[in-house]
Design a protein that fits this description.
By secondary structure, the protein is an alpha/beta fold. It has helices spanning 38-44, 65-71, 84-94, 132-139, 155-158, 164-175, and strands spanning 3-7, 10-15, 25-26, 29-31, 55-59, 76-81, 100-104, 120-125, 143-154, 180-186, 194-200. The protein has one domain: 3-Layer(aba) Sandwich (Rossmann fold). α3 links the parallel β6 (76-81) and β7. 44% of the residues are buried.
Length: 201
């Protein structure tokens, strides 16, 4: 169960789970710090994310910090990561979490992991690459009807010269071909030139 705790005068989400690395723990709960996790930043900015008992496809799992948070709540987290170094660290994180399943694969090619990923309730994407909307569209078939998608957009990965707001709009427009787009939430001041597009299948 997620709860909110106060840290240095700010309210942050927190969950029960085994401590990871040097993260903050308050009253026995792991603090999801919004400067270490874009999902935490989205929650702090009032994005609703129904993770409890959900099946989650997490694209761009990195070293496993946010996937481990999600695994504190979800029924299953399929975390896809392509870069070898962070993927290795995520595997180490998963060794202590029986609901976190690391997958070493390229999120731009879902056929690599289609045989091992079931239908999911939530698609969460944090892949910093050109064509971020296309990654989400390619992975949309994993998401059940009515399932929710959260697509983190790193504007500078799309075009370092363009205005971030233009890139957010372009990604949201492309997602609208497959998803019902709810809203786009800028993740500043926690992450510059980042936003999350919230949508539903």
């Amino acid at each position: 169960m997620m709860r909110w705790v106060e840290v240095d005068g700010e309210r942050y989400p927190a969950t029960q789970g085994e401590q990871l690395r040097d993260e903050r723990v308050v009253d026995g709960a792991r603090v999801w710090h919004p400067r270490r996790s874009k999902a935490a930043a989205a929650l702090v900015k009032d994005v609703e994310m129904p993770l409890e008992d959900a099946r989650v496809l997490y694209l761009g799992g990195g070293a496993g910090t946010t996937p481990s948070y999600v695994a504190d709540l979800a029924r299953a987290v399929y975390a896809v990561e392509f870069a070898p170094s962070p993927a290795k660290r995520m595997v180490e994180v998963a060794e202590t979490r029986d609901r976190l399943f690391p997958i070493f694969a390229d999120a731009r090619d879902p056929s690599e992991y289609a045989p091992v990923v079931e239908e999911v309730d939530i698609l969460y994407q944090d892949v910093a690459t050109r064509g971020q909307a296309e990654v989400a569209v390619k992975n949309a078939p994993f998401l059940r009807d009515g399932g929710r998608a959260y697509v983190v957009v790193k504007a500078r990965s799309e075009d370092v010269t363009a205005e971030p707001a233009e890139k957010y709009e372009e990604v949201a427009d492309r997602l609208g071909d497959v998803f019902d787009v709810d809203r786009t939430v800028d993740l500043s001041p926690f992450y510059d030139d980042h936003a999350v597009v919230v949508a539903r299948r």
